[in-house]
Design goal:
The protein has helices at about 1-20, 85-90, 145-160, 180-195, 215-220, 225-230, 235-245, 255-270, 285-290, 305-315, 320-325, 350-355, 360-365, 395-400, 420-430, 470-475, 475-485, and strands at about 25, 40-50, 55-60, 70-75, 95, 110, 120-125, 135, 140-145, 170-175, 205-210, 385, 405-410, 435-445, 445-455, 460-465. The chain is an alpha/beta fold and about 500 residues long. The protein has a domain at about 25-230 and about 270-390: Alpha/Beta hydrolase fold, catalytic domain (Rossmann fold). A hairpin with a 2-residue loop joins strand 14 and strand 15 (about 445-455). The longest helix is centred in the N-terminal third of the chain and has 18 residues, at about 1-20. It is found in: Secreted. Belongs to the peptidase S10 family.
């Protein structure tokens, strides 16, 4: 009798996993890829506000392992204003992409280090106006931290109504860069919903964030010690900056401090801020070449004109507001920029993603909106007016971890955009007891980085040699710590 029950249960689960998805959401072919998909893929829209026509696009990859039991992970890229296809194409999606030849469609191959090896994963374009997400009322492109978190929570609730078979799966939130704001604020909304008894009840377990924006002071003071530790500035320059700025590099009215910080800007000019070990890709665009000097790493001279704002936004791409205007709490309007070559931050080559995602065959296959609705996909959009209105993320992390939710904060140690020095400092500032002393973690008997574990299931981890987008540079290492974190096993 028990065997019959198990057989019937198995048949039921197969039926649910096959038939519960929204009609028309199944992706049956992926242009550029030859062969059978290793798991089911779905794509489409969730309408989060009918009155304003707000629609968030998602691409859902079922686990290649056991989709009915493996965790569900929501992935968010940062910006704010950058598409989560950044993660799909360049980091931990199911495919590796060959560089296109003469504008042809890229060829796709299976990614041996895809995060879908061990989890179901939803790539969400958020907020509205990013990637393929859109609103019929463009006033909705005026947004901020609070509104984005609310909209993403609404998305999750509605998504699970469309895919109820996954409600029992453990849910994790993940992202990088400005998702250091997206993830904890969304987690806060999720927990509030659970505690208030909102249905459907989400089985939320924790979150992980890479090179995350978190706190203006900690992150703002991170560059100088990072630059010195990486050998980018001399002992004497460090001494001069520290003396002139009185040890505080984030905000100052001292002309002497500004002088030395400008000197630092000149010294690091030309480096790839996302990974100082990597070359900086230069687009064939005169405006960018003319203005790529004087990176505004010191938070000074924020820029008075639309042209200078546009350049600053491009310099910092996936985390530019944190460099450009986070101190004031308001990110200024992005001027309309129509050149295709301006969709990616400086030093970043988004040719592969642009070529693939703007192909009409691809757009049809993955169920995006018509071109009349979303004209072109861009890595980072310039149509948002975004307000950083929720301040420091440290209280959010403290609240979530004190309630027992697991958190992994990881840093590529060669990222100059959101340096590990600031992230290590603010995680330590939570004041939790150290339960796993600073030590190396290994892959194949080689040091892959360093880790420190705290009480309340908080872990800080570095990845040796990685930049801002960790899985892009260290895919094997990323899959390793990702799987161990989801499983709750030691790294």
């Amino acid at each position: 009798m028990s065997n019959l029950y198990l057989i019937l249960l198995h048949i039921f689960l197969i039926f649910v996993l096959t038939h519960s998805a929204p009609k028309g959401s199944l992706i049956t072919n992926v242009p550029g890829f030859n062969g059978s998909l290793p798991s089911k893929h779905y794509g489409g829209y969730v309408t989060i506000d009918k009155s304003h026509g707000k629609n968030l696009y998602y691409y859902f990859v079922q686990s290649e392992g056991n989709p009915s039991k493996d965790p569900i992970v929501l992935w968010l890229n940062g910006g704010p204003g950058c598409s989560s296809f950044d993660g799909f194409v360049y980091e931990h999606g199911p495919f590796n992409f060959d560089k296109p030849v003469n504008g042809s469609l890229p060829k796709l191959h299976l990614n041996p280090y895809s995060w879908s090896k061990v989890s179901n994963i939803i790539y969400l374009d958020s907020p509205v106006g990013v990637g393929f997400s859109y609103s019929k009322n463009t006033s909705q492109y005026e947004t901020g931290d609070e509104k984005t978190a609310t909209d993403s929570h609404t998305f999750l609730l509605k998504w699970f109504e469309l895919y109820p078979e996954f409600l029992a799966n453990p849910l994790f939130l993940a992202g990088e860069s400005y998702a250091g704001v997206y993830v904890p604020t969304l987690a806060h909304k999720v927990v509030q919903g659970i505690e208030a008894g909102i249905k459907p009840k989400l089985n939320f377990k924790g979150y992980l964030i890479g090179n995350p924006v978190a706190d203006e002071i900690f992150d703002g003071n991170a560059l100088v010690p990072f630059a010195h530790g990486m050998g980018l500035i001399s002992d004497q320059i460090l001494k001069n900056i520290t003396k002139a700025c009185n040890g505080t590099f984030y905000t100052t009215n001292s002309s002497d401090c500004n002088h030395w910080l400008s000197n630092l800007d000149d010294i690091v000019d030309g480096l790839n801020i996302y990974n100082i070990l990597e070359p900086c890709y230069h687009e064939d665009n005169e405006e960018i070449h003319e203005n790529k000097s004087k990176l505004p790493l010191s938070f000074r001279q924020l820029g008075k004109t639309e042209k200078s704002l546009a350049v600053r936004k491009r310099m910092f791409g996936r985390a530019w507001p944190y460099r450009a205007n986070l101190r004031d709490g308001i990110v200024p309007s992005w001027p309309e920029i129509t050149s295709n070559s301006l969709s990616a931050p400086a030093c970043v080559n988004d040719e592969v993603a642009r070529n693939w995602l703007n192909n009409l065959e691809v757009r049809k296959a993955i169920h995006t909106a018509e071109e009349s609705v979303v004209r072109r996909w861009e890595l980072c959009t310039f149509q948002l007016e975004y307000d950083h209105d929720l301040g420091s993320m440290i209280p959010y992390h403290k609240n979530l971890t004190s309630k027992g939710y697991s958190a992994l904060i990881f840093s590529g140690d060669h990222d100059m955009c959101v340096p590990f020095t600031g992230t290590q400092a603010w995680t330590r500032s939570l004041g939790y007891k150290i339960v796993d002393e600073w030590r190396p973690w290994l892959i194949n008997d080689q040091v892959a980085g360093f880790i420190q574990g705290y009480a309340n299931n908080l872990t800080f981890l570095t990845i040796k040699g990685a930049g801002h987008t960790v899985p892009e540079y260290k895919p094997e290492e990323a899959l390793y710590f990702y799987k161990h974190f989801l499983d709750g096993t030691p790294i």
